[in-house]
Amino acid sequence: MIRNDFKQRTEIVVGSEAIDKLRDANILVFGVGGVGGFVVESLIRAGVGNITIVDFDKVDETNINRQIIALNSSVGKNKVDVMYERALDINPNLNIRKVCALLTEENCSDFLCQDYDFVVDAIDMVKSKLALIKECDNKKLRLISSMGMGNKLDPTKIEISDIYKTEMCPLAKIIRRESKKMGIRKLTVVYSKEKPSETGVDEADGKKKRVNGSVSFVPSAAGLIITSYIVRELIK
């Protein structure tokens, strides 16, 4: 008999056994911004029952154009706090844990003390990404890592691949090179084959950091593709 709750329409597609698998799944998501926020949202709506979210950042006005948690009312709040509240509004029975912290090489292993079914890397910082990739490889945890989605306009160019088969993406090039140095044999990533535009602006405070542009429909698409991959793997 089909259930009469928010999982009903999903169960029609995947079946009751898959719904139980999703309910029991335990997922760790690093970064709840443009990509990661859509991963978390869609995992919850798909029926995943256990999620840990990690992000050190606060919602900024510049996030409103693309991040699902970014509203005028949430500007200035910790991203994990906003995502946590939103998640429980979707599923009050969700087992969710929030950590407001920056992942570093020194603390990375502390985050991976549970036997997660999947780890999602939606981190912007290269050093943090590499630390997570290395630690997940050491602990044999299933990881999917998001590459660069900035300065791009065509979500149909996004695909899932192994890092060593990627092309065009500048971030993937760096991760590919460094992963090889670390002895990583394979790494599942979501990346875009679209050539990024060369637009960007320098920080107004005079720093050399270059700020890339981003739109609403590319990072979000990457997040949904990640969730699709995870769900399909979990219910096999």
Automatic annotation (TrEMBL):
Taxonomic path: Bacteria, Bacillati, Bacillota, Clostridia, Peptostreptococcales
Name of the protein this chain belongs to: tRNA threonylcarbamoyladenosine dehydratase
Organism: Peptostreptococcus porci
Molecular functions (GO terms): tRNA threonylcarbamoyladenosine dehydratase; ubiquitin-like modifier activating enzyme activity
THIF-type NAD/FAD binding fold domain residues: 13-159
InterPro entries to which the protein is assigned, alphabetical: ThiF/MoeB/HesA, ThiF_NAD_FAD-bd, Ubiquitin-activating_enz
Signal sequence bounds: none
Pfam families: ThiF
CDD domains: YgdL_like
GO biological process, one term: cyclic threonylcarbamoyladenosine biosynthetic process
